[in-house]
Amino acid sequence: MREKVLINDVGPRDGLQNQQRVLRVEQRVQIIRGLLKAGVRSVEAGAFVSPKAVPAMAHTDQVLAGIAGDSGVDRQVLIPNAKGYELARDAGANTVVLVICATETMNQRNVRMSVEDSLAQAQGIFQAAQADGIRAVGCIAVAWQCPFEGATDPGKVMDLAGRLFEFGADDVNIADTIGAANPMAVRSLMGALAREYGAQRLACHFHDTRALALGNIYAALDADVRKFDSAIGGIGGCPFAPGATGNAASEDVVMLLEQMGFDTGIDLIALMEVGSMVGSMLDVPTGGRADTWRRLQVEKDAPLT
Amino acid sequence: MREKVLINDVGPRDGLQNQQRVLRVEQRVQIIRGLLKAGVRSVEAGAFVSPKAVPAMAHTDQVLAGIAGDSGVDRQVLIPNAKGYELARDAGANTVVLVICATETMNQRNVRMSVEDSLAQAQGIFQAAQADGIRAVGCIAVAWQCPFEGATDPGKVMDLAGRLFEFGADDVNIADTIGAANPMAVRSLMGALAREYGAQRLACHFHDTRALALGNIYAALDADVRKFDSAIGGIGGCPFAPGATGNAASEDVVMLLEQMGFDTGIDLIALMEVGSMVGSMLDVPTGGRADTWRRLQVEKDAPLT
């Protein structure tokens, strides 16, 4: 029995929110259906944020409607506040993700609130979610490095995670929003969080800005984390965080994990086809280096494991 | 006091040997001088191989002559055999690097010899090097994965390393020639080698084919390895190993190490300028993601550490 690792594909949200081209609802549904068909069991399907601020996330309710019915699939959505929570609940999301930044400056830029106000808001939302039977994830952004304040105090992240759990978060997702974490810092912070709160309730979210996403995932695995965000094609980046580039590419993350003997449940070839489709839809080169593996595989030269 | 890590820049050899454009001796010297000026203390300056088979490595003696005189610099050269050794010695190399492949098929393709014959040859060369006061490095290629035979038996690598040390190798360099190793396999093999032979006599050489070079370096660091090959600009690849793409980019490796608190002695900005120069000389896009860091740095948004 290989050990399971859960991939949550955030491409339909984090990947699409900041592209030149805004995809239609049908295209967003087509991407998610492709991901599910490849074996992905958890997707961040969209966000209930202002369609004026983030036009690419408009009509997330219709996207959720388009993928309703698949049982055993976690349909997550990002919500910025209590109103977003209500929209998500009414649209049938299984899981809501609420982001709190570990630094004041970034939190102000992201949601125009102090961290303390964001926490108070989280408490109300998590209580409502518990009552409604909806899973709640608290995501701590800029957990290692903030584009405005520099290195983030690990103690601050520890405290924030504790309060999010206390307020009813089912999971806490630790995010390297700008891709500036390094494996030693990841091993250290995730190890401390895992000892304090248990690794099974933790997830990680890495960007590949400095080519370190896979190294950071390995370091988090070493701290017993078994849940990771990644985005099909490595698309993405935060519109409010300077320097944030693509997410860890799902294709590369699956390749890494399967090669190391973990079971993602995902068919890599099928996943790569979804990646190509996304690249065509957006008319951008999609990242990910797993295609090198595919080429080798076709040549029967270098098996995956 | 930060812990030191030694970077051996193999760009002038592994990086240039398989390019469309063959550089002139003056250009090769200019690259190496740039590296040394940036603080690099060890370079693989060239190879004494057949100029017919690898025209880019012709006149390595002139390259060595062009960089003679810098004290405290390790001027390594690759040699395929005893004749290569004599040429290297006469040309003033400090260190000779002899490659043995961990699999029979790859060794045959590389040097048209059995592994056993390569070992016998290594013994003679290492003895001569010892007598001549020249440092000898035994490099074990395809140490994790062979493009022809698949996964490499770690026991085979352990045995080969033991015999190379026994024959007088000062260091043994463990090479992931096609960039197919993963961090767990690296941690495991380098940990076993370090326990058996001591980490201070080991080095690693990674290619970035699957975007795992930095993750693999972190895993090797975790096994106490403190010597790494990398190539300026991430250029390179083995002409005889299908699927081998660029080396770990020196810029990225320095960024990773410095960010994690190690001391490479290398000025990253100066190194990146050498990388741009190499890209212009070869008319190829050079790899490496450290330029993202530079951009962030200039914006004063995300400090390196």
Helix proportion of chain A: 40-55%
CATH architecture of chain A: Alpha-Beta Barrel
Distance between the termini of chain A: 16 Å
What series of H and E elements makes up the topology of chain A?
Answer: EHHEHEHEHHEEEHEHEHEHHH
Pairing-aware structural class of the strands and helices of chain A?
alpha/beta
Domain Pyruvate carboxyltransferase (chains A, B): 5-272
GO molecular function, one term (chains A, B): hydroxymethylglutaryl-CoA lyase activity
InterPro entries (chains A, B): Aldolase_TIM, HMGL, PYR_CT
Pfam family, one (chains A, B): HMGL-like
Question: Describe it for me?
Answer:
- Chains A, B: One of its GO terms (biological process) is ketone body biosynthetic process.
- Chains A, B: Pfam families: HMGL-like.
- 2 copies of one chain form a homodimer.
- With 305 residues, chain A is α/β, with parallel strands linked by helices.
- Chain A has a single domain (6-298), classed as Aldolase class I (TIM Barrel).
- Chain A is 43% helix and 16% strand.
- Chain A is built from 12 helices and 10 strands.
- In chain A, helix 8 packs parallel to helix 9 and helix 10 (250-259) runs antiparallel to helix 11 (268-282).
- The longest helix of chain A is centred in the middle third of the chain and has 18 residues, at 115-132.
- Chain A starts with 5 loop residues before the first strand and ends in a 7-residue tail after the last helix.
- Residues 296-305 of chain A have low confidence and may be disordered.
